[in-house]
Amino acid sequence: xxxxxxxxxxxxxxxxxxxxxxxxxxxxxxxxxxxxxxxxxxxxxxxxxxxxxxxxxxxxxxxxxxxxxxxxxxxxxxxxxxxxxxxxxxxxxxxxxxxxxxxxxxxxxxxxxxxxxxxxxxxxxxxxxxxxxxxxxxxxxxxxxxxxxxxxxxxxxxxxxxxxxxxxxxxxxxxxxxxxxxxxxxxxxxxxxxxxxxxxxxxxxxxxxxxxxxxxxxxxxxxxxxxxxxxxxxxxxxxxxxxxxxxxxxxxxxxxxxxxxxxxxxxxxxxxxxxxxxxxxxxxxxxxxxxxxxxxxxxxxxxxxxxxxxxxxxxxxxxxxxxxxxxxxxxxxxxxxxxxxxxxxxxxxxx
Length: 351
Fold this sequence. Notes:
18 strands
């Protein structure tokens, strides 16, 4: 284990924002992870778990406690069963599964971060979510003081949510197991219209795995959603807000606001989200509320490629970022009566 004191945390996040941690420990084995967690719990020391840092907004004052950076490695493939150590780089793991001819996560290519974070957020994009392929999650249960194995059903997955996110102080993910599909080198059925259009096929069709992965990477890159240290549009957490899910009553009120603001002929995006619920687009809301691509004059601005990404143009502070986020939330609420919810985890700050 590597132990540093008064250690900068900004370089460990894709925003490149945030103050230092009192203590930063880098663990490279599951046993080291559990040791650090147990020590923090035994001494009452605040603990911050850091994976790929792609979903963290850390306050400018930093973190007064132990930051645990999980740098474990492990990619074990047996037939269609895959086990990943929490510290595995997610994009690399997706590439290896595609090369192995296995479908199920190919449309999650290019998502930054570590494998251990994927069940926490129920990471999803372009028609796939990890909840569709995760079979088990191995985690250290801080309440029970032991390592446990949770089935898919026990993980409580829903849209960008899970048991781990609902109770963030209880579990530290160590390993994630997936059940993938051998479809003869073909992708899973394409469930996202934009991907299907880009590939010249219909939703529900399958295409060669490599084509699906490459197309998603191109689509993401065009929106600034593939990490590039030279491109400040990627100094972000990707999508900063989740897509709102509305009840029928909320949806009716929303449609009334849209007609009043934009005209009778405007139909906002709408996707089924379970009985009596409809999902709409946060990016659409932001844009129609007047926050265009590139919005802002300070060091934190909306991406020039995608309205759903808030970015650090190089000299921003976390407070700069939060000021922009609050402005967007207030503007969307005023325009459409919907309160956007941030997707990244905030540490020492809040909207």
